[in-house]
Amino acid sequence: MSRHSDYPVKTFSVGFAEGEYSELRYAKTIADQFKTEHHELTVSQDNLMDELPALVRYRDAPVAEPSDIPIYLLAVEARKTVKMVLTGEGSDEFLGGYPKHVFERYVHTYQRIPRALRSGLLEPLVGALPYRFRRAKTAIHNMGLDDWQDRMARWFGALSSAERDLLVAFRPDGSHEKGAAVSCGQGNSALRNILCFDQTSWLPDNLLERGDRMTMAASLEARMPFMDHELAAFASALPDTMRVRGRTTKWILREAMKRLLPREILERPKVGFRVPVNEWFQGPMKDYLYDHLTGPSSRTRAYYNPSALDKLLSDHTHGRQNHEKLLWSLLNLEIWHREYNIST
What we know:
Elements: E1 10-16, H1 24-33, E2 37-43, H2 45-59, H3 68-78, E3 84-86, H4 91-95, H5 100-103, H6 107-110, H7 115-127, H8 134-143, H9 148-155, H10 161-167, H11 190-216, E4 221-223, H12 229-236, H13 240-243, H14 251-256, H15 263-266, H16 277-282, H17 286-294, H18 306-317, H19 324-339
Parallel strand pairs: 1-2, 3-4
């Protein structure tokens, strides 16, 4: 774009005061290299608490991701100068960009370890590691799940069936059924199976839906070049090693960009668009979280086993375990009940 445009390309990036979560300096590296007209926005926990009820309404459902807020606020900022933007959704799901795309290949090897050794020694030891080992903790827990549907959903932070049964007390029809199953055919590699799940569930039902609602809430249109159907078909026909090679994700894309991007960008590990709700729930948003989930005005506390919910909150706020994704989901469900005046 910068090569063919007569004017500087406008670029927009959002970050946080918490440095380990912010990628603003990396975005600026690229903006400086391509001489773009760059705009930066920093988001705090105050923005989250102020905007969250309205964004729950924009989603029209009790489903949300923490990144909804920075995406929406960045869309508001971008809309001041442009009507349409290009985003990167789809690259990870078609080209294999997540750490789980590496780990999933080792599930069968890991499950050859006797179950008693895994559940009695290895998994408790890894589970007791500090939060900075979160990827290892997630990988070990998930690779131990025999049920494919359970494992695919839990890679995204969802509860397994057993974890859900421990937490949830309210079952209006007495059902223990799982959600709709995803079928990816027979004889696929582990990588193709997990990419199939991503492309038929997470991508359309979360990333694309979320991005469309948050940008259109700001009257901004977003387009996704990686979602081009011919590019998707080409990527899907590639052998596994062209997408994930060893521990390197999106291998072919990194190779294609070697002449355009600096090494510090190409070789950075995947971090995802993470919002620091982990720290916020332990600090400035702790009272907000407890009030919504356990306070006298809570409309959803009856949905949960009290001891299980209290343990989740205590473990997270005291830094023993990180339950930010689950607590975020429960918080959004509570806000949805309040916004639409729904009583349990």
